[in-house]
Amino acid sequence: MVSLLVTTAPLPQPPSGCGATGSGVCRYVDAVKGNDANPGTSTLPFRTLQQAADVVNPGDGVLVRDGVYTAGSTVLTIGRSGTARNWILFRAAHRWGAVVDGRNNRSAYGIRIRANYIRVEGFEVRGLSNSGIDAFAGNELVAVTHDVAIVGNHIHDIGRICDDGSGGRGGIAAYVSNLVIEQNVIHDIGRLGPGEQGCNPTTTNWQNHDHGVYHAVGDSVVIRNNIFYHNARGWSYHRYSGVGATARGVYILNNTFAFPNPNRDGQILIAGATDGLVIANNIFYQPTTAGVRWGTGGSWAGARLESNLSTAAVSAPSVSGVTFVGNIEHTDPKLVSPVGLDFHLQSGSPAIGVGVASGLVKKDFADMSRPRGARCDIGAYEFK
User: Residue 283 and which of 20, 157, 227, 307 are 20 to 30 A apart at CA?
Assistant: First the structure.
């Protein structure tokens, strides 16, 4: 058994509650009882997310109470940075209880992150016409922002519009270095196809332009313990940079990918220069042809695919310079109920106890410690 190389710093774990650290304070937002003229305390909360974002300082924690949060073109822009010792945290008080809502695509962006040392945790993000969470500071050539964590969110129904344009939609747009995307559920990303809600596209852009995670620029990116499904208008993870930027240190670990894009191969597409790529311990359930598709014109010498399980092939087409170790192909992972969207492992699953060790994966999707046996399990869930 080989332990995968770790080159990224560990992600700081915020305290419970609002998560304030150092000299930071707790700020509260309540869509029902709040008022932006309030001081943002527990008893006198703000009403909008943006009001909290406009006043936060390093170490502050913003606790967002249950409710539906809307705004104009963008629901929330985070432009004030934390520090390496004291991040800024935006956290839903109850997982998925605080809803960032695009009002059926009337808003383009849900949460825009344009700052450093930011953690966004536990929101439902839905109904935006462009991006659910947009970690992008406006530079397509280089990652301007750094140290961002997107954790435990439910991101869905993004870009569900009828559109022939070439601009892509995304659950998460990733243009950040030192980025962690973990324990999220990302599904139903992308524009309408022929016959959906009366849509009649005149191009084929609806087949492959919209993605669960679109990673354009940024080094040291960790994508772990996420569940992706029904992303049929592109790929659940797409690594691409039209400007030719190389990403260094990309780890895609212990995710579960489910259901195909019937018009394209793969649930992961690697189509941009990527150094230090590791794809390990993932389940690829019912991809078209293969779990990982390789584009043309990219460079990924030294990439490693290890201990992945696929109901089809793990990788296609044939590529050079990539190491394949211990992958399991054309095998049913024995999930509890994929049709019912229950992606836990059944007893006797071939994914149990055959994963490769990684210092980057200590817990599973449900926050259960890994491994529970001698070796960790493949996929987002550790078997109980």
Answer: 157
Longest dimension (CA), the chain: 61
User: Quick check: 261 and 211 in contact, CB under 8 A?
Assistant: no
Is the overall model pTM greater than 0.85, yes or no? yes
For tokens 């919209």, name the residue: 210
CA distance 252 to 221: 8
Q: How far is CA 5 from the centre of its chain?
A: 22
State residue 33 phi and psi, 5-degree precision.
-105, -5
Check if the beta carbon of residue 303 is closer than 8 Å to that of residue 321.
yes
Please name the helix (run of DSSP H) or strand (run of DSSP E) that holds residue 52, with its range, or none: helix 49-53
- Burial readout 312-325 (b: 16 or more C-beta within 10 A, e: otherwise): bbbbbeebeebeee
Strand ranges (E), 254-312: 256-258, 268-270, 274-280, 283-285, 290-294, 303-306, 309-310
Domain spans in the chain, listed from the N-terminal domain onward: 144-384
Angstrom distance (rounded) from CA 83 to CA 12 = 12
Q: Give 27's strand partners.
A: 62
